[in-house]
Amino acid sequence: MSDEILDEAYERLHRTGPEYQGWLSNHGPMAVEALARHGHQRQVHRWLDSYLGRLDELPRGLHPIDDWRAALGDAKRAGDWLAYFDRQLRERPWRDVLGTWWPRLLPGIAAGATHGVIRVGHAVRALDSDDANRQRRTELGQALGYWAARWQPIPGADRLLDRTSAGESGGPSTGELDVDAALAGLPRIDDQTGGVRDRLDRLPGVPRWEPALAAMRPARTPAEAERGLATLVHRAGLDYLRFGHVAPVMLVHAVTAPTAVLRTLPALDQALWAPSLAAAWAATAAMTAVYAPADGLAPPIVAAATPAEVFARAARHGDEHVVKLADAVLDAHAATGDDRLLTAAGYAGQLI
């Protein structure tokens, strides 16, 4: 993507913080990248004009990051993390920085309701087409810094990630279900009220949660990991049609989080692909368990449209979640040819 409009948009956004009004995520960098990617550059600045007013200023740092482990997940250190990654990306190739930090950040994939990893996925996609671009390297640094500042594990996922990272396959603790069956077997929290952090905190109290999380078959090769991620995005997109009416904004992230991981794979060492699938599965599973109802509705009937029409409608709608979901399901549609996916973006537009 060589269009200068995206870089101009990044320049405007990089004076703002990764969150606003407490801890709402700044969706601007993700939305403008999707708009530009799909040929809607002329709408980017107009969209930003109406969005920037809600954002906070870039946070100031307290003191430099020295013990990174102690600083992970400390939102008060957001300014320090942004400065840290800005320095890292000035001094080292961006793929080296990403390769170092991806396995450190992956266990905290719930960061910012998964917006940390989602923003990284958009930044990596932008860099893939122009990896010497200053604004895009800055965007990757701000995305990584946000993820580090809001780093948050998913209850029960640590053992899943440890096992996958160690390359274990087989054994009594290894799941054998495919993605469809694993998603279908997820339990739900009883009290689906409150914010995402409160809901995630309730997962340990669900007896079936950890066995269900461990039930999906792990990837044994990089190719299996890539296929598993593609299937996870596909299935989560279809599940949005069944469950989206209950939490139309938050269930978008069950689709966009694994999409971000899938987009990042080509920039990573293949040894990281299987743990990446495990973390993405945990993210989608958690968002489903804490927001989706036990029983879904029949998928809605939405008028047929081409992929270009689907995204154009999302761009006209303007909501950042509708734009990002359209972007994600178009990727999944391109990979699978499943036209049902195209209805998810339109459905989100009706609900949000």
Automatic annotation (TrEMBL):
Domain of life: Bacteria
InterPro entries: Questin_oxidase-like
GO molecular function, one term: oxidoreductase activity
Sorted UniProt keywords: Oxidoreductase
Presence of keyword Oxidoreductase: yes
Keyword match Oxidoreductase: yes
Pfam families documented for this protein: Questin_oxidase
The name this protein goes by in its record: DUF4243 domain-containing protein
Species: Micromonospora parathelypteridis
